[in-house]
Amino acid sequence: MADFAQTEIERRLTLYQVFLKLYEHHSSLLDEILQLENLSQPSLMRVKACYVHGVVDTAAIYLMTNLCDNQTQSLRQSQGIWTIGRNRSSGICIADSYMSRRHAAIQYIDDQGFYFIDFNSTNGSFVNGDRADQPIKLKDGDRVCLGSMTFDFFVNYTCRVLPTVAMELLMQLGHRKNDNQVEILTYSRDKQKPLPENAEDHLEIVINSPLVEKFEHWYENFSSEQKSEILDRFFSRQIPYNPS
Known about the structure:
The protein is an alpha+beta fold.
């Protein structure tokens, strides 16, 4: 009986050592397995995913992350170095007992990109399962593990300027009222009232319409291009006045 117990203990120690080696060299694989396991547990599906997003803009270079105080923040650093650690002076401070006070950093190098550097931390850092013994250039979608936490890294080098929204869509956008309800500024063609034949009566109805007040409020916030488009559409659709 004693021999059986000793054998069982040795077996469990061997499995534990195998698990440690697997976690050390393939931590990302274990994270994926745990995520698949969590899909069947609704209480764990609400866990917020951790991320760091590097943004290279014409005006500034910064990080966006939800690692700080559990809320999304934009972090700008004049030297392009964002330190990570348990120390409160770290740019990204994480209260994790498995993390060193000065654990690692993300650095941006001009014309090269973002790099992850481990400061010879006690428990080390891993990028896509590989130990970060040297600076590693980060790519879009990389998974970084340090301490007992894992986050995904994303990077953005490009920005697209989208075209202006068509006036037909602008007029259908929701207008928020004081009671936090949304009023849709559109109308049903079936419920249209017949327009009066007299042009002056028609003008009076338009001026007294509640849509005019709302449209004037919006008009002040439109760009010059949008204002020009409004006037062009208005004059092109005017009903010619016939005095006879």
